[in-house]
Amino acid sequence: MKGTINYRHLHYFWITAQEGSFTRAAERLGVAVQTVSAQIALLERALGAALLTPQGRRLTVTATGRSALSYADQIFQLGEGLRDAIEDAAGEHALRLTVGIADALPKLIAYRLLEGTLTLPEHVRLVCQEGNFDDLVADLARHRLDVVLADRPAVTGGNLRVYNHPLGEWEIALFATPALANHYRADFPAGLARAPMLLPTRNNALRARLDLWFEERQLRPTVAGEFEDSALLMTFGGNGLGLFPAPAVLANDLARQFGAEMVGGVAGVREQYHAISAERRIRHPAVEAIRASARGLVLLPPA
User: Fold this and answer.
1) Among 221, 228, 268, which residue's Cα sits nearest to residue 243?
2) C-alpha to C-alpha distance for 179 and 52, rounded to whole angstroms
3) What is the pTM of this model?
4) CATH topology (fold) of 78-168+274-295
5) pLDDT at 299 over 50
6) Which residues, in sequence order, are CB contacts of 275 under 8 Å at separation 6+?
7) pLDDT tens across 80-95, in order?
8) Is residue 183 packed enough to be buried (19+ CB in 10 Å), middle (13-18) or exposed (0-12)?
9) What is the pLDDT of residues 105-122, one digit of tens each?
10) C-alpha distances out from residue 140 to 98, 131, 171, 274, Å
11) Looking at domain 169-271, which CATH architecture does it have?
């Protein structure tokens, strides 16, 4: 006989499904492993069906579990929304914008895109989360984020209900410390053969375009480092480890923050940026401000 659903049990299941492990769920919840497994067993008894099943070293959700997880997502996200609404009502009624920033997106670009939200008539409270692109898009689909900023569009279709909003594309250039820039600028781009180069990892959309650019010019630079995170790539570049690619529009920002100079433009190589939302038509005023900021991104002469 099916019983009444206990929402604490449902919350334990929700966390465990995300973590794929009783142990990790217990650590996140701050309770004993036995407590988590016992309470999920009570939930399964109340629903009359198994929700989780072992698969190797992980727990995966069953078909019934996937249905229960979908409802749990909505229930607990509404709960989080209620908490945020109460906090805002007790405070200064700020417009909340929760943004996922893909780790491959240059953080200086993220700032330039988001700064327009700070000039809106209504005060905006930004909540920024950085992470893996696929994880952020999954959180967006679960309505945990308002928008994701990324260097590529999301693959849509199937059960993934998200929408891509192109923000534009910008030319890429190579930057370096003044000493390296002076050395390689004189015979650019031919002089890049065997130049120390810092590049994105191969799962980054920009990397393939850069590799093709080098190949077409028969250049074989020395790859001194590969980086998943764009901020880390620029930090190493700013400390003289090698030349590094970045949007030319950031020339002034890179000079101020890293003391880097433009070596030369990478003709024909551009980076695209996208805002990804859970709705086809963007209604959030702060996201509209992001799109306006993107239209205002222009290449400025060095300060």
Assistant:
1) 221
2) 58
3) 0.63
4) D-Maltodextrin-Binding Protein; domain 2 (3.40.190)
5) no
6) 147, 148, 149, 164, 165, 167, 282, 287, 290, 291
7) 666 665 555 555 556 7
8) middle
9) 888 888 888 888 877 777
10) 10, 12, 28, 14
11) 3-Layer(aba) Sandwich (3.40)
